[in-house]
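Sample pair:
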Amino acid sequence: MKILYSERAQHTPAFSLIAEGWNELVQTGNSPDGVAISPVTKDSEVVYAALDNGEIVGVLVYGSDWVMDEHPTRVQLAYVEPSSRRKGVFRAMLAELVSRARTLKKTTVVMSSTPENSDVMTVMRKLDIPLTTITFEIGV
């Protein structure tokens, strides 16, 4: 598996997986703030996971406040294909994002969720990432 990065989500082979991930969040009622409007834009930055055969199996999308020092890195969408879950895909993408945050001298990566999204709650607990309200803050 390779972890890749792009400044613009639109220009990656991961773009269709972003739509699939957002659709799953909306269908399960787990989109942030309960809205169906995606915060992901064509200009969102993305870290994504590709298998050796080129299949894209995970995406981690973050927004434009990434470049502003006074703001934390905000994850807008994290999604791993169901067949690739529990194989370290999310962990590898998150490690790449944290590495990028350190390079830019960021102090925090923020990932918000709804309390009803038990999948996110389980993963973050397993990774030993503290919960502050409904926002996970990852020190970098």
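The radius of gyration is 14 Å.
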